[in-house]
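Entry for the shared binder. Reason: the reviewer on the internal report wants the predicted structure included alongside the sequence.
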Amino acid sequence: AQELAKEVNGTAARFDDLYNLLKESSIAFSATSAPHAIITPDKIPSDRNILFADLAVPYDVSDEVDIMKNVKVLRLDFFEKIANYNKKNKEKEILKADKIIHKELEKFNF
């Protein structure tokens, strides 16, 4: 953690400090290899709006956090849906571009 923090000009912190760190945060990214949820409602300040990007498998943010009014959780599957949507749109645009290219090539007898 210390090497990564240094690389991105950040600060490494102990997990025990999570609550205090979240008191100062608006956005938190989580991507551990923990076998169970490690971010539970008791670790989240209730007086702060926080967006969690949970990139872990299994999830780091417990399902109980989803019902907290001051928290929004985006999990890995959310980002996967966006990526798939964008990929499908790109494929459609490629087909359109291909038709345009063929139409223009026909003008030159290709």
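Summary line for the report: The CA atoms of residues 99 and 107 lie 13 Å apart.
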